[in-house]
Amino acid sequence: MDITRREFLGYTAGAMSVVGAPLPHWTAPSVAERRLKKWRVFCSDQDVLPESSAGYRAVLPQRRWRFEPWEQSDPLSHCSLVIMSSVFLLPEKIAERLRMCLQRGTTVIIESAAGFASHLGFRKHRRSLREGLGLRVAAPVNLWSPPRATPYVDYTWPIRTRVRDFTRLVPPANQPGQIIAWAGDLPVALRQRVGPGTLIYIGSPLGPALLIGDPEAIRWLYAVALSA
Amino acid sequence: MKKSIGDNMIPKDWGLERGLELVKRAGFDGIELWLGDVPWFQMTTTDAQVRELRRKVESAGLVVSNVSTGLHWATPLSARDPGVRAQAARIVERQIETAGLLGTDAILVVAGLVTEEVPYNEVYQRCVDALKPLGEKAARAGVKLGCENCNSEHRFLISPREFWQFLNDVNSPAVGIHLDVGNIHDTGFAEQWIEIHGPRITRIHLKDVLKHRGRSGDQSVYTNLFLGDNNWPAIRAAMTKVGYDGWLIAEMEARYRYAPDQQFYDTSQAMDRLISGRL
Questions:
Q1: CA pair distance A59, A217, nearest whole angstrom
Q2: Cβ separation of A211 and B120 shorter than 8 Å?
Q3: If you placed Cys at B174, which of B64, B138, B253, B255 could pair as Cys (CB 3.0 to 4.6 Å)?
Q4: Structural domains in chain B?
């Protein structure tokens, strides 16, 4: 873990300050870099949901992240947290690196961007996650058909919080691990221990909420970082 | 100022040619073409057919005042689905292309749609992001892209200062406001919107509004010019103050139970009174 509690509190306090701002410009407080460990956000070469990647970029402290296309990634050494935003297909060479990261104790977040995919596209997505990381996901669900009474995903780990859903959900299927977020009675996010590492799968993109400065979404992300 | 009216006002069973004759006879100078709302102007209409459409308009002694569309209500630029957003952008691009073919320099876009499902801040950000490149395309084509103030209809950009900030954030000289003086309802005053936006106004839609009806129930809040609660002398004065001398486009609901063509004559005469300031 390469973030102190003081840093975490600083970031989340900053998150609270953007309430009501339509176009937040996130500025992380200036803190001394204590370790070489980094956070990295990766987007796909064919980023199907660029606003999601932009959301992570907007809220993570700039000195700590590296944002790169997948193809340029190095072995990801010294990363405590790797975020694969807006994932549609997971190339095998990237999956292999992620597996190595997990074996080194990294926390890896995989955010699905296949909610709006075609039937064929989703099948490719599902296969890619299963073969790459052993993640099993169920078919997309339109959370808004019929219209919902409350538009929120309830996260239960690492903190209890509420973030808006993103209409289409790709739920995690039955598999080992802990469900850490729900939309009503539908599972949204899963946490798995993989060796010394942690694999977190999110079925309803969080990035768009980060991009609009949702303080709860930011707080959740930083809480994950704190636990990494 | 010149007078125009939408081709979607033409009675359904009249057809384009007869409708154009009516528009001309009623005293209008131009016609607003609604992409996707009328059979003669669809997304599938070819460039050659669009040129033929222009020929028919000009043969009737009219010009095209602007290209509008209602397609963005079902296919908004603010949709979460990236596929829908791409389709929405394509609609705007086609509006820009056809504006050039039709010899006009303005298009109307309904910029975003706030719903229970897609919240305001998301809509705001996506619309800004979408309009920046579209504004560049419009500028290259010499076309002004006017975002219509649909206020309570799209639950977005409700106040004039909010709209002003939005246009600042888009930050494109080709993107302005297509101001509808009837859409403001009881959330403000059209003359203040005109004053605030002045040079950014690309076109003005005219209709009157029955403010006391609000948006509840199944009764329309809209009505013909001078029958509602808009302060028309103040609206006319505001146009003079900001130097607006462009197109005025009638956009009301076709509500005449009998003699639907009469609405064209009545509207045209009312617009003459507004332009002349005899109010």
A1: 10
A2: no
A3: B138
A4: 2-276 (3.20.20.150)
pLDDT for position A37: 59
d(CA A8, CA B87): 41
Residues of B in contact with A211 (CB under 8 A): 125
- The Cα–Cα gap between A12 and A28 comes to 10
Burial class (CB in 10 A: 0-12, 13-18, 19+), B117: buried
From residue B152, alpha-carbon distances to A14, B114, B185 in Å are: 33, 10, 8
Task: Read off the tokens for B53.
Answer: 């459409």
Residues B140 and B135: their CA atoms lie apart, in Å, by: 9
**Residue A193, pLDDT above cutoff 60:** yes
Q: What percent of chain B has pLDDT over 70?
A: 98
Contact by Cβ (8 Å): B143, B99:
yes
* Tokens (6 digits) for A65: 């992240």
pLDDT tens per residue across span B104-153: 999 999 999 999 999 999 999 999 999 999 999 999 999 999 999 998 88
- Which tokens hold the place of B94? 């086609």
H helix count then E strand count, chain A: 6, 11
pLDDT in tens, A72-82: 656 566 688 88
- DSSP annotation of A138: P
Interface probe, candidates B80, B84, B115, chain A, greatest A C-beta count within 10 A: B80
**Orientation of helix A119-133 relative to helix A92-104, angle to 10°:** 40
Sort strands A168-169 and A197-202 into parallel, antiparallel or unpaired: unpaired
Which pLDDT belongs to residue A148?
Answer: 87
Instruction: Quote the tokens at residue B200.
Output: 């950014």
Delineate the domains of chain A, giving CATH numbers in brackets. Answer: 5-16+37-227 (3.40.50.880)
Q: Which of residues 98-117 of B touch A (CB under 8 A)?
A: 116-117
Backbone angles phi, psi at B249, to 5 degrees: -120, 120
Task: Yes or no: say if B191 and B234 are a contact pair by the CB < 8 Å rule.
Answer: yes
Residues of A whose CB is below 8 A from B81: 116, 167-168
Give the ipTM. 0.82
Assess whether the previous peptide bond of A187 is cis (omega < 30° from 0): no
Give the contacts of B185 (CB within 8 A, at least 6 positions apart).
B151, B152, B209, B211, B214, B215, B221
In the block, tokens 């009474």 appear at A149
Exposure of A197 by Cβ count < 10 A (0-12 exposed, 13-18 middle, 19+ buried)? buried
CA A217-A218-A220 angle, 5° bins:
65
pLDDT of residue A42: 73
Q: What pLDDT does A34 receive? A: 38
Q: What is the mean pLDDT of the segment spanning B255-265?
A: 93
